[in-house]
Amino acid sequence: MSMSRKTEERFLDKDEKEFVGLSHHPEIQELSDAALSDLIGKLRDRRDKARDVGARQRREMRGKAAPTRGRAAADNTGTREKQAVLAAALKRANKERERRRETVAA
pLDDT tens digit string along 4-55? Predict the structure, then answer.
């Protein structure tokens, strides 16, 4: 199930809010091809970072990794939600790029 924009914003920092906001309709259709490719790269980097942080937090919770801060992570729900929001934005951006490719090919 998709999230509302307000719910998405709860899990994102300022830059991520901007990137995810650009992945929504109608903003994404106004982007040039180069800007869309740039957006996809940024979204992919942020998603991968959230995935890596979530994996580290899971290992800390299980006791398999030393805490990076003073104590081990107790919960990684926010990080999982952030990853889901960024993955959905990336999916929208990739879908738009594919739509553009099909339009040019037709």
Answer: 889 989 999 999 999 999 999 999 999 999 999 999 999 999 999 999 999 9
Q: To which residue do tokens 């109608």 refer?
A: 26
Note the Cα 72 to chain centre separation in Å: 24
Number of domains, the chain: 1
CB 61 within 8 A of CB 74: yes
Q: Secondary structure of the chain: what % helix, strand, coil (to 5)?
A: 75, 0, 25
Contact 23, 93 (CB under 8 A): yes
Structure-block tokens of residue 44: 């992919």
- Its domain, for residue 69, covers 5-105
